[in-house]
Amino acid sequence: MEIHATLPPKGRDLRLDLFRGLANWAIFLDHIPNNVVNWATTRNYGFSDAADLFVFISGYTASFVYAKMMLERGFVVGATRLIKRVWQLYVAHVILFVIYIAAIGYVAQRFHDADIISEFNVAGLIADPIQTLTQGLLLKFKPLNLDVLPLYIVLMALFPPVLWLMLRKPDLTMLASLALYFAARHYGWNLNAFPEGQWYFNPFTWQLLFVFGAWFALGGATSSRWLITSPYVLYFGIAYLLFALVMTMAGRFPAFGEMFPSWLYDAFNPNDKTFLAPYRVLHFVLIAFLVVRFLPKDWPGLEWKVFRPMIKCGQQSLAVFCVGIFLSFVAHFLLTMSSGSLTAQVVVSVVGIAILCGVAYYISWSKQQDKPRPKAAPKPAVPIVTPAPADADGAVPTPHTPSGVPVIVASQTSDSADTGKA
């Protein structure tokens, strides 16, 4: 089949790094309970949040990174590179999983806090550690806050055939993703978790944002430009974002929520995150349209120093994400053991963000050190001029360069003079 997708222009899109860094910061803050600083994240002001942004950008970047490789070197090479990335994600998840549960177990034992075992969903490790660890390696057992990475792993593992079809039939692939999304919501499809329940992030529905990101990168943004720039979409988008803000605030403040009829309040509260409610998808799509409309790729503000730490965290997303998940547990523990005052909340949040930035800058620097340094340019060779033999009168003529400039020749002594021999 012919290729109908449009590859993105060459060059790094700093908008992706900026928003991916923002998502990592927000995920860290949102995973700290009773923290006033997480009121700065988007989940408090609309239906979608950092998880939606993370999944969308993951699909966007995966498509343009591996699409060109699949076109130039074939499906097999592109698919194997994708699987290699899946393996890297899986290894990162396993390392984070082990460190995470070890830290929870240490805190529970050291400070005699048995409740934290149940709070972070690791009680199964005590009752049946072998079975629980095995299910953890199979991505079925997930402690609290370790749900995003398994979703990412599953979506990436199934992405090779999706990307192959997306390159040839992008609109058809997007429609198939929509069909799967609505079928999963209608029939309640989801993956089983261990020891009970289902996945918090349902892969059958969340794949929609991942595929939408890939479609958006491979020509979807261009083909829907007329829609993105439409004034009617702009007005509707602003009105819908305001409506989402009101409904979200109604869920945050019960007294405010009582002002609305129950049929309206119950339609949006609680926010259906597991099955990715349609109102949540629409909220994110409108935000994406507004960003593309008002924040072009060449916006000079992307070079401002104030955005550099966030962009750097986006460029080293996997490591920053994993460290952020662990730090959120540490921050939660510190706030629990301390007074939990406003000052403490601000301090652990700011220090955590600073550590994430430090990790990002260090990894970026470390990667630069692994690259071979450019070879120094060779020094120009100095011409060696052999003294001319003396003429009949015993005079040695002064040598000249081709340009006629005299060359000074150092006098030479014999070996016998150097050794003091006659």
3D architecture notes:
The chain has 422 residues and is mainly alpha-helical. Helix content is 64%, strand content 0%. The chain has 19 helices and no strands. Helix 8 (159-168) crosses helix 9 (170-187). 32% of the residues are buried. Residues 407-422 have low confidence and may be disordered.
Quick overview of this protein structure:
64% of the residues lie in helices and 0% in strands.
Notable characteristics:
422 residues; mainly alpha; single chain; 19 helices; globular
Topology, pairings included?
Blueprint: H1 14-30, H2 50-73, H3 75-110, H4 115-119, H5 124-127, H6 129-137, H7 148-157, H8 159-168, H9 170-187, H10 203-223, H11 225-228, H12 231-252, H13 254-257, H14 262-268, H15 278-294, H16 308-315, H17 317-337, H18 342-370, H19 415-419
- Main sheet attributes: strand count, strand direction, barrel closure: none
User: How far apart, in Å, are the first and last alpha carbons?
Assistant: 92 Å
Determine the mean pLDDT: 89
Count helical runs: 19
